[in-house]
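Replying to the earlier thread about multi-chain prediction with a worked example.

Input:
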Amino acid sequence: MKIIVAIKQVPARDSQLRIAPAGKWIEESDLAYEINEPDAYALEAGLQLKEKHGGEVVALCAGPARAAQTIREALAKGADRAIHVEEDMGALDPLAGARLLAAAVRGESADLVLTGLQSDDLGYGQTGVILAELLGLPHATIIMEVEASAGGVRVKRELEDGWFQHVDMPLPALLTIQSGISKLRYATLMGIKKAKTKEIRRVTAADLKVEAAPASIVLERVHLPERTKRTQLFEGSPKQAAAQLVEKLKFEARVI
Amino acid sequence: MSILAILEQRGGAWNRMSFETLAAAQQIARELNTTAGAAVLGQGIDALAAELAGKQLEKVYAVEHDLLKDYTPDAYSAALRQLLERVRPLVGLFPHTYQVRDFLPKLATSLGKVAVSDAIAHRVDGGALVLVRQLFQGKVNADVRFAGDGPHFASLQAGAYRADQLAAGSAAVEKFAPQIAPGDVRTKPLDLFRESQRAVDLGAAEIIVSVGRGIKEADNIPLVEKLAKALGAELAASRPICDAGWLPMERQVGSSGQTVAPKMYMAVGISGAIQHLVGMKGSRVVVAINKDPNAPIFEVADYGIVGDLFQVVPELVAEIEKSKGS
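Result:
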């Protein structure tokens, strides 16, 4: 089974974000980056499928030069090779991003393309499905399990409110993987060593002959959310803060 | 018509977010000085269409086909492409459900568009619609505008609009029969199922203490159990805690778990990702304990302590016991 896993590099989860002076994007200069957590689960699902059925896992990542770190980590965890679309993604809309990814893998004829559910930065939750449409593949989203079946795969989709559904689909197909469904592996020392010799194909939008299309949505401004509620914060030592909170809950909110 | 609300039903029952989207469509249409309509897809949906006919809408479209009985992204996208061709709305509005997340990006892409997904608010600026959506797990908001000709697409976050503001009226129902062939549908959906009976009904709890990633490891769970016991509360958790198996899935609050609205919701070590907030933001009083002052949970909190939960929670238990004893 040849499996492509699309991964994205995003600011680390605990980053303190500041808005850039032009108000169009965040200040990126002092941020630490890591793999988008939902994509880490997609990679894990891909590696497990390879262990079970054999084949190859190809990590696919679009991002600037710094994304090479995230790609090396994916190779260290067990991806066989990688494709790095070296472009600054920033606030690029998900269709523009997916066009680059689609162009980079069109010649690969993979059996499965996996992505995370959504990105922790832009959070559109659309790249996987858009990529499927661009590649002409059937898709299913929020997948918990993948089993090989006659002529394709049977997947378990998560629906809302505790419901699930199995879906039979032919291959090739694209799946977006639910987060938290398995334990993520760590890279071993051997894996880290091997990663250094693995192939990373670097391409740009120009190499892929992807031209910017007129955007249908425009990100006009980014801003810190206004608080809808005024939060009363209690300060001082943990003991003082706890005492003030209990006082308020008892006499102001009257909930205890 | 320029705003078309595309609503969700399953087996003849509405998804509860559908009427929020309908209310939003009415409100946005009023502000843009235009009209709103609604569409429902499925098979055997006369009763649902008749219900919509009692709302203030220009028209109701009942999109019916045997292949729309069970949801598939291929059939839904094909049917909606044809409906949009017929209706030509400026904006198609959807509830941001799991199902919409599954087909809307496909539909929009097939028309060369990008949907503004999971919008939380809107405003009209210079006669044009501006939508607000969250980036970086709710830490940053973005204002997004549509460019070029319609149809444009947006999906609305659960709870962002109020269904009780829906205006009554009367609308004609138009049946729409899309052309879909069995060969167009590449995936085969099987029956829906649930995995466990829910023994815990968090919906009935008056006080909930909920724990998140900040608790760090399973061995620390008793700390919040003590807090729940002191408050007479049910213990709940955010998704990562249940995924890790530290608490059972049935105690999960959020879009993939239970939706709760207790008298008090105390979030301990929960940053407040969107998926969690939609499950608890209806709570009367929200208390947050978190070490990150910028955690989105503080956006919805009435009371908060910024601090290390391992220091704060034991003190809180002591204070609650003292207060109850007195």
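Residues 225-256 of chain A form one domain.

Feel free to reuse this layout for your own posts.
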